[in-house]
Specification:
Number of strands of chain A: 14
CATH architecture of the largest domain in chain A: Alpha-Beta Complex
Number of domains of chain A: 2
InterPro entries (chains A, B, C, D): ADH-like_C, ADH-like_N, ER, GroES-like_sf, NAD(P)-bd_dom_sf, Zinc_ADH-like
Radius of gyration of chain A: 20 Å
Largest sheet of chain A: 7 strands, mixed
Structural class of chain A: alpha/beta
Oligomer: homotetramer
Distance between the termini of chain A: 16 Å
CATH superfamily of the largest domain in chain A: Medium-chain alcohol dehydrogenases, catalytic domain
Strand content of chain A: 25-35%
Number of helices of chain A: 10
Protein name (chains A, B, C, D): NAD(P)-dependent alcohol dehydrogenase
Largest interface: A-B, 50 and 51 residues
Order of helices and strands of chain A: EHEEEEHHEHEHEHEHEEHEHEHE
């Protein structure tokens, strides 16, 4: 068992939440300068079992979750134009799919008291990304309309966070995902293959358009977001399922006074605020399925087959 | 001579500043529902010579300039997702290339006291667009670096407004435009055909990148802006010289926490603030050339030949 | 029955909500330059029964509520340092305690579809003030803690609006008001006479303090708000029950990076957003009691005796 | 000579700028839990002469200045409602009036290249406080009017920073301080004993009032700031020369939509931005007088006699 050094903590992992990114790191390395043997995984909940000297933010027995971009504490993100910040847990830094990890205490925050370990493990990547986009950047508020064109991990958190702030949520998806989204609070669930999606959104909003889009699709889909967003609205560019080359028309962007926010998770202070919001509102992250560590291959397979909610690997 | 009705003012035009848009409206109508005979032109400075009843914002003798999007007084812009606001002076509404015009008094603001009529006429479109982008949306401040990849009308105002706030300005252009830009305050003037533009900008900013880009080029150029912008930086999408289909890579946008602002001029309160800023800082708009009304064809031709500053039509 | 002129609407009043200010205007005139006979009252809900020419924002049959500061549409409030804006409905302008009123159409917004007339009538003053403070100025979000040291009209809206955004609410009051506040969602209800109020708030927030205070008490109470507010927190200065001379210690204000917002209702765009929020979240304004027009003296008396919620005068 | 440990740097001090606070700490301790022997002083410029392991933000030979509140890197300030952050250099932490100091590398930023050591030493407290107030909180911009009712250290930086952003500055002071303020750029210098100060400010601003007040006087002076500030204006509460018990009238605060910002210096990212602004704009801090270390008593005396600019203690 590793020993925590100065400013470090030894944590016993209870649950790890998988992200599609973990699968990509495992399969391709994503071009990152990894040190082998490499441990994947970014999202966990665990309990502190020992601490090194000069570590006073936590006590033995505290339940914690990690911060995915550990150097981004608050305010401006580290990095520069030549080298954007890329040092993440389970990417540049070794990951957390392990029974024990040692981490600097500045890399952690307390887990919500109202969530199980499996639930808490889902917050650091998917939860924080949706929170940072909608709350800290786009400023969602009661009565706003939020368009979420997906039912992936960030999308479902976006749905729940928007509802917790009193917003109206429109989800685009397909098949039984629509019913599942409705069951957790979506106000309007539209089949993404409808020919009249645009008119449907205009009808729901009385032509006003949507105040916020969680743009998790990317590629040419940004054009659609620009078309549907309200005057003065916000588009949070979060994902690139359809490709990393974004395209959109200039005129509606300019005439509608639209703001596009590039989102790459968020800072630690925001994660602490998300934890408080979860405890206050009773928000329960959606879990698709749970696996033991020995079932990791099956868990990774499940990532490809359109889960509704997060996939959890549980430890003893 | 027209007679002002209730809430209206009769204005004698002294100078009109041309915009490339005027040429397009004259040549193609731009698809707008114009009533003929149509008077083009949006930017003027003039003097109030008579007022109708219920018009108390101005007095006879006041020098005024118009507000290009007259219904956008402050705060949120009018319009909705289906029909963005398109009602502009010299577009939907009849324009101002005339000796006298009658306008509602809510469509006007007082001209700066420190500018000539020709200079004041340049503010409503080019001046306000640069001001609204850099000051009201992007929040430029002393010590910031601003990239301006052009020497067009909005670009030159951007340069002067950025300098008035203590920022460092990098201009991209070509030929003798570079010297002219330097003469009015640009800190760094780079030939747009240099193969090492990216490295040059990284070198100037110590790899930090630029805090703001005035993106007046559009099309695929947005990709370059995303590449050069600093972490936490702002890109103001203003123009589309290279095309109305924007494209850009998703990853640096997301990893660098970048904000893109769609800009389509600005509101009347911002124009009033620009007027105060001009009077306070002594900013003098750049004028390329002056013509009489009879020389309008020559003036419009000049628009195509790369003027450095605004082209003015002066009235008797 | 009055006839609407150009740009005006004739409205049949259904319900008027009283404010303590109405009583003061009736009794003292509050130093305002009133024209007699003067009609008091600011808050109503009614139905449009006729419209003059050039009035196209509404149709006959639309249910509407008024905007209390009619010249403040959006953005910056009118007025200057010498003469702050004071032109309000039922103050400078004639009021609405009448069966029919004629108003300019720019002074109105559509009533929420989910509220009765009596409920809708409560929004323009008390509802908008709480909304503008917490949402548009202080930016309340899920997980924040809001301190509301009263159970007056603005206070109860503050409570409901904070809850609609997922915040935790602490109310200070006395007697059975505490139970009533709990019944509509307050998380913590503290007797204002407790000697240990400060410690109680520190305990609830884990010493963090409260993110927002709705300061409706005024006078020396601001000192207490400064003491209890969190680092980086917001105090909305709204009311002056304890006096118009505010006092507070400088050191905690400075060391805790606190922001104080002076709040005097809000603009029309914000009222439109409040209406959407009410319809989306199902927020129901609290009504204390209802009276007929003939019972106006009793209704005004009731204002003095600590109502819990708004007092309504209903019209046939 | 002390030896730098892990993450620490050894710095040779070149110049220390005195603050009135230093005098108070020396004379009274200010109630801080000081460890004796205690070294006072917070502001310096110096050169790195050695570094410990794990310290890579700086190299030997770099000129640096310290950050006064070392734990406040960016975003939200540390501390809570019960215990606001009070750990400052030369207060809770030992100070810098010494030939050599050892400090953690996270407590430092690079000095501006365009300033001498004496000039650079003035930035961390007085410079950062004025910058954080006007630029990061109040958002000063060209054409704004800033009222600065003093010629103290923070006040003069406020004057220079406002001018660097194109603002108009009104200074209140007395005697030859008025001429000195004019010489460094103040647009209007008013004797603080004039009976018509209010009317003078209204006249300068055309009744609009001032957009920003650097409230360094405190006590009952806040009432005057509230009276003179424009609708939508900002008051930065910074100092308390006239007392720590602030008082102000509620009505104009509320009717004018005023924001009061409690200011207690600023974070390290802001100090880095100030350094860039100084290098870009050529701002030169005002130095009143220079002393050797042996003359410290005379230097402290000078603090009491109304210096114009900062007092510097120079080392070898």
């Amino acid at each position: 068992m590793p020993v925590p050094g100065r400013g470090e903590l030894l944590i016993r992992i209870a649950a790890v939440a998988l992200n599609y990114r973990d699968k990509m790191v495992i399969e391709t390395g994503r071009g990152l300068p990894l040190a082998f043997p490499f441990t994947p995984g970014s999202d966990f909940a665990g309990t502190i079992v020992a601490h090194g000297s000069d570590s006073d933010r936590f006590s033995v027995g505290d339940r914690v979750i990690p911060h995915f971009t550990p150097e981004w504490i608050d305010g401006r993100r580290p990095g520069d134009a030549r080298t954007p910040a890329y040092r993440t847990l389970g990417g540049f830094y070794p990951g957390v799919l392990a029974e024990y990890v040692v981490l600097p205490d500045s890399w952690l925050v307390k887990a919500p008291t109202t969530l199980s370990d499996a639930e808490a493990a889902t917050l650091p990547v998917a939860g924080l990304t949706a929170w940072f986009a909608l709350v800290e950047r786009a400023g969602v508020r009661a009565g706003d309309t939020v368009l979420i064109p997906s039912t992936g991990g960030v999308a479902l958190f976006g749905l729940q966070i928007a509802k917790a702030h009193g917003a109206q949520v429109i989800v685009w998806s397909e098949g039984d995902m629509l019913d599942k989204a409705r069951a957790i609070g979506a106000d309007h669930c539209l089949d993404r293959d409808r020919a009249d999606l645009r008119e449907a959104v205009y009808a729901i909003t009385g032509d006003r358009g949507v105040d916020h889009v969680l743009e998790v699709v990317g590629g040419g889909h940004l054009a659609r977001s620009v078309e549907l967003v309200a005057v003065g609205g916000h588009i949070c560019q979060i994902g690139a399922l359809d490709g990393f080359d974004l395209s959109a028309p200039a005129m509606p962007l300019m005439l509608k006074d639209v703001t596009i926010h590039g989102i790459g998770t968020g800072h630690r202070t925001a994660l602490e605020r998300l934890v408080r919001a979860v405890d206050q509102t009773g928000l329960k992250p959606v879990i698709d399925s749970r696996y033991g560590l020995a079932e990791l291959p099956a868990a990774l397979d499940r990532l490809d087959r359109g889960p509704f909610g997060k996939i959890i690997v549980e430890f003893g």
